[in-house]
Amino acid sequence: MERICEPELMDEPLQAQAYAAADFSSGDRAVLERIDAVLGPRGVGEGEGLSVVDLGCGPGNITFLLASRWPEADVLGIDGSAAMLAIAERRRLADPDAHRHVRFQRLVLPSPRLAGPCTAVVSNSLLHHLHDPGVFWGAVKQLAGPDTCLYVRDLRRPATAAELEALVARHAGAAPAVLRRDYAHSLRAAFTCAEVSEQLAAAGLEGLQVREVDDRYLEIHGPIPPGRLAP
Fold first, then answer.
1. What are the CA-CA distances from residue 42 to residues 38, 47, 50, 72, 123 (Å)?
2. Which residue has the higher pLDDT, 70 or 115?
3. In the predicted model, is pLDDT for residue 19 greater than 90?
4. Listed residue (226, 27, 230, 34) closest to 125, CA to CA
5. Which phi and psi angles does 70 have, rounded to 5°?
6. Over the chain, what HEC string results?
7. What tens digit of pLDDT does each residue of 66-92 get?
8. What percent of the chain clears pLDDT 70, i.e. is strictly above it?
9. What is the pTM of this model?
10. Can you name the residues that pair with 54 across neighbouring β-strands?
């Protein structure tokens, strides 16, 4: 099935509110477990000395889970949507003591203001939003240092329209109309594992692992290879 891009930013207030109200807790916690595994020994303890950047943080779901898991780590959530970040910032201010090491920043990629290095770059469902995936991998390299690790989870594009419709019914059948609409658009805009592998080769990031996860996701993870880190 041919890829069809969707809007890069989720800036509709209705979208932001629907995503903030939806229960993604099971999937979000699975992402956190995978990030913990990718960090390995560096993830032991409360996060002293860790710095984590959450690319495409949306309303902050993963960002706040990271801060809860590693309360002493510096956690930065980055997104281009003002509507999403407004919700994230309200959540942060609702418990400033618990979120004292959390920050949010509005940036539209590509951006020269994106600065590393950090301990880990994480991202959940941003890649498929970008019309040019090279922009995403350029941002990863801007944030990377010699010891930076990466964890990305994203949708993968189904092979046929019938498979797409089945996924929407299976995973979003009871969701509000705006979420069902966006989910279908996102599946059509997503990449296959083979396409991501080609992107990594073009970006000089061939050492990262790419694999399919369950019936709809792919993940990219590992230490960011040394060498061609400059975007």
1. 9, 8, 8, 13, 19
2. 70
3. no
4. 27
5. -125, 80
6. CCCCCCCCCCCCHHHHHHHHHCCCHHHHHHHHHHHHHHHHHHHCCCCCCCEEEEECCCCCHHHHHHHHHCCCCEEEEEECCHHHHHHHHHHHHHCCCCCCCEEEEECCCCCCCCCCCCCEEEEECCHHHCCCHHHHHHHHHHHCCCCCEEEEEEEECCCCHHHHHHHHHHHHCCCCHHHHHHHHHHHHHCECHHHHHHHHHHHCCCCCEEEEECCCEEEEEEECCCCCCCC
7. 999 999 999 999 999 999 999 999 999
8. 97
9. 0.94
10. 77, 122
Q: How many CB atoms lie within 10 A of CB 220?
A: 23
Alpha-carbon dihedral sign for residues 144, 57, 91, 26? negative
With beta carbons less than 8 A apart as the criterion, state whether 32 and 56 touch. Answer: no
Indicate the angle between helix axes 177-189 and 161-172, nearest 10 degrees.
140
Give the separation between CA 41 and CA 169, rounded to whole angstroms.
40
Please give the biggest Cα pair distance in the chain.
Answer: 48
Q: What is the number of residues in the chain? A: 231
Helix 13-21 × helix 177-189 angle, to 10°: 100
Q: What is the pLDDT of residue 226?
A: 66
